[in-house]
Design a protein that fits this description.
heterodimer; A: mainly alpha; 15 helices; 2 strands; 1% strand; B: alpha/beta; Rossmann fold; 2 domains; 6-stranded mixed beta sheet; 13 strands
Chain lengths: 319, 401
């Protein structure tokens, strides 16, 4: 409880502090990091707490981005109505799709979600409404450059905070216990009277809601979107890597993961123009071997921290 | 006494050195470029990186850029956009606000160019790009983006023009095109131009990218009596198309393909059947344009091949032209002010480059020209506008070769 409060306080203080100390590039970088923190935290709802490894969460991002593009440039809506509607559309999409595909388990579920993302991309590529494969423009925000970057940043930060607060309350409610019960043993949860189908679909829908809203802010900031980049599988992989790196199944783990991964990646590509990918890959591999439970676990298990902590992880995972 | 003299000498030497150093550091024009060093676009991205570097070195070798009587050197600042438009837009932001570059060079591919150009527009910094041809880049009234790849829709203009000059002039034309964005633009553009020039388009058909069976399309063209067939697609499709045309003995007066004829793989796969096939290109290494950085296209091709070990194609030439345009525009503007340079770029008129003379349309895209190529004796030759090789028209029939 104390730790959670401390975590929230830290995010709010750092979050508000950052944009007033740095230039526009840093604000934009920070916005991208916060967006990734939302994506990783949303993935954590379905993948971390409910135990269903979704490999297609990017679909909600794409749906959110395209919903915003269509609502703003075709229907002439303002940003906030578009943001909320985009989130809801992604949420309903996740909830509805959840019914059939959440019956699958393990690898089958992962493959089905992967297929879902590809199929949705193909749909967007061929619809007249979304201008096919050539991409869509969004209206430019009518404010100064500096103000617009602040605007995107604080909207993203706001969504992240709402997501974390909502998750905090859910985790301390019947719904949250239901998610965890499904992860630990779905049959047992079922026999205890949890309607697993509904619970799983809610989890998937929630994941979709926030991912969709992140997609919405992204699209408005980017000003132009194309199907390929907003439905790209590697972004789902990045969400998972961030969640794992920070700590799966913990409230702040994915946020820490997103911040550290993006900062490391940014630092490396700044200093090594081409071979940054090799260094980055090596860091991920080492992290997974030595600290499979993520940075969160290192922080909370600090009394044991030292060489023995890492060696124990290796022993436990039989590397 | 001696040591004092020495000290004085040393100090003055250091001062001169320091001054010359700071003077050197001031006289630099920074060109920023976020482009794909890694990821799916890196293969073509590298062509632009090589060209930008090559052209910038050349400008500096020639004494740099003259502004207000002072000489400036070009300096490139590169970042890797990882073939990701999000990353690209962010890096352009960084180039402008952190590295404080004076002007921007573009990335590769239309999808990445658009978000970056939006950032350039927000800060009112001109960007000249050589790697995006989509009309989407230019049709939103962005006054800070300039592109040196010609409109896809104009690709077959030179071929159709070539046809109007033949005697007897053909009347019926078939157009086939793949369903990707670029080829759709090429196909639709060709149809519009053909009709404008008074040809009858007897077949206008779209096929899916990667298709391998063209027999029904060829049969249809044959039946409709198409005298010329234009195909906008990719190398594999081009090879299949020619092989099947031979099998079905379809031999119109002219068979023209966008991609294929200029590539070595195409000629290797088809052997002597590749002869007499027509192609188009916005630029070819066979052309000869007088340039400002290089004496002419041929001199450029030779120096480039010596340095990088591969033959430059239109991507490279377009990239070199981008740098040449900046040199010319900055000198004409006689200022480093982004707005003045932007206006000077827009006013570029008939600038001589090894890529051809450069003029921009009002929307910032180059007024392009394409040339007609034909494979003669296994070599790709430019046949229109005339360059010393005569076109073989009509193509000889398959059994009379």
């Amino acid at each position: 409880m104390k730790g959670t409060l401390f975590g929230f306080a830290l995010i709010i203080i750092i979050g508000i502090f950052v944009p007033f100390t740095a230039g526009n590039f840093t604000i934009r970088l920070a916005t991208d990091i916060v967006i990734f923190a939302i994506l990783a935290s949303s993935w954590n709802i379905i993948g971390g707490y409910t135990g269903y490894a979704s490999f297609g969460n990017i679909v909600f991002f794409g749906v959110g981005a395209y919903a915003t593009a269509v609502l703003m440039s075709k229907a002439g809506l303002g940003f906030y109505p578009a943001l909320i509607l985009s989130g809801l559309i992604a949420c309903v999409y996740g909830f509805a799709i959840g019914f059939p595909i959440l019956r699958l388990k393990g690898h089958y579920f992962a493959i089905a979600t992967l297929g879902l993302a590809e199929a949705t991309k193909a749909l967007v590529q061929n619809l007249g409404l979304t201008e096919g494969n050539s991409g869509m423009y969004l209206p430019m925000p009518e404010m100064g450059i500096d103000a617009s970057y602040m605007f995107f940043y604080f909207n993203a930060l706001g969504i992240l905070l709402i997501l974390l607060i909502v998750m905090y309350f859910i985790l301390n409610s019947k719904l949250g216990y239901g998610f965890v019960a499904i992860r630990e043993d779905e049959d047992a949860a079922d026999s205890l009277g949890i309607n697993t189908t509904i619970f799983k679909s809610i989890s998937f829908g929630l994941s979709g809601l926030f991912t969709g809203m992140a997609g919405s802010v992204y699209a408005y900031q980017q000003g132009f979107i194309k199907p390929e980049p907003v439905f790209i599988v590697t972004k789902t992989v990045k969400m998972i890597v961030m969640a794992v790196f920070g700590g799966v199944g913990s409230l702040f783990g994915p946020v820490i993961g997103a911040v550290s991964i993006e900062l490391i990646s940014n630092y490396l590509s700044e200093h090594f123009l081409v071979i940054h990918t090799i260094f980055f890959g090596s860091i991920i591999i080492l992290a997974v071997i030595f600290a499979p439970k993520g940075i969160m676990d290192i922080i909370t298990a600090r009394k044991k921290l030292g060489l023995s902590y890492f060696l124990e992880n290796i022993r436990k995972n039989r590397v | 006494m001696f040591s004092r003299k020495l000290l004085l000498m040393l100090t003055s030497f250091l001062l001169v050195f320091a001054f010359s150093f700071s003077a050197y550091a001031e006289n630099v024009i920074k060109l920023g470029c976020a482009i794909s060093f890694t990821g799916s676009k890196s293969r073509t991205g590298k062509l632009y990186v090589d060209s930008y570097k090559f052209a910038v070195d050349k400008v500096n070798e020639m004494g740099g850029v003259n502004v207000n009587g002072k000489n400036y050197k070009f300096e490139l600042v590169f970042y890797d956009d990882k073939s990701d438009p999000t990353e690209s837009a962010r890096l352009v932001e960084k180039l402008i606000t952190v590295d404080k570059v004076d002007f921007l060079l573009g990335p590769y591919s239309s999808g990445i160019t658009i978000p970056s150009s939006i950032v350039a527009r927000r800060y009112r910094i001109p960007m000249i790009e050589g790697g995006g041809a989509s009309s989407k880049i230019f049709d939103k009234g962005n006054k800070y983006i300039f592109g040196t790849l010609p409109r896809a829709g104009d690709y077959f203009r030179s071929t159709l023009e070539f046809l109007t000059k033949q005697d007897p002039r053909p009347e019926k034309i078939a157009i086939l095109y793949a369903d990707d964005k670029f080829d759709v633009s090429v196909g639709e553009g060709a149809k519009a131009i053909a009709e404008e020039m008074g040809f009858e388009v007897v077949e206008f058909e779209k096929y899916s990218e990667g298709a391998s069976d063209f027999t029904s399309a060829i049969t249809k063209a044959k039946k409709a009596g198409a005298e010329a067939t234009l195909v906008a697609g990719h190398t594999e499709e081009a090879i299949n198309f020619i092989q099947q045309s031979k099998e079905l003995n379809y031999s119109p007066n002219l068979l023209a393909l966008t991609v294929g004829p200029s590539e070595a793989d195409f000629r290797k796969a088809l052997g002597k059947d590749a002869n007499y096939i027509y192609g188009v290109a916005s630029w070819s290494a066979e052309m000869n344009f007088e340039g400002t950085l290089f004496e002419d296209t041929q001199a450029f091709v030779k120096q480039f091949t010596d340095k990088f070990g591969y033959d430059p194609d239109y991507h490279n030439a377009s990239g070199v032209a981008d740098v040449a345009i900046y040199k010319d525009a900055v000198e004409r503007a006689n200022s480093l002010d982004p707005q003045k340079v932007r206006d000077a770029v827009a006013a570029t008129s008939g600038l001589k480059t090894i890529y051809g003379p450069v003029d921009f349309m009002d929307n910032g895209q180059i007024i392009g020209s394409s040339v007609v190529l034909q494979i003669l004796d296994g070599k790709v030759r430019q046949v229109y506008p005339a360059s010393g090789y005569d076109a073989v028209y009509p193509m000889p029939e398959w059994d009379k070769r």
